[in-house]
Automatic annotation (TrEMBL):
InterPro entries: Endoribo_LPSP/chorism_mut-like (IPR013813), RutC-like_sf (IPR035959). Gene3D superfamilies: RutC-like (3.30.1330.40). It comes from the Bacteria. This is Atu1372/SO_1960 family protein.
Amino acid sequence: MEIERRISEMGLYLPEPAKVPADVILDFAWARVHGDRVYVSGHGPQAADGSVIGPFGRVGAEVTAEQTAEAARLATLAALGSVRRAIGDLDRITAWLRVDGYVLAAGL
């Protein structure tokens, strides 16, 4: 629980599971354990209650660089929340094998 304590001390949170509209069906797991690895699906920024939040749009057009950095922070916390629910304790993580991130940017 050391990692979660540190996250909390930084004023950050691991959100509840993602909330999607009732008519939306997500036919996949946000995080899945296979052997000694956890595979994590793509996440976006979420509020503490799990609701999807913005900003929405293209970086450099509708979204600023500062908003993008905050959205990336919140998406990372959402992914960590899914990992915690999958394995029970983030302190069990011993290594990261791969981390990808994607950003929708305005054309030049």
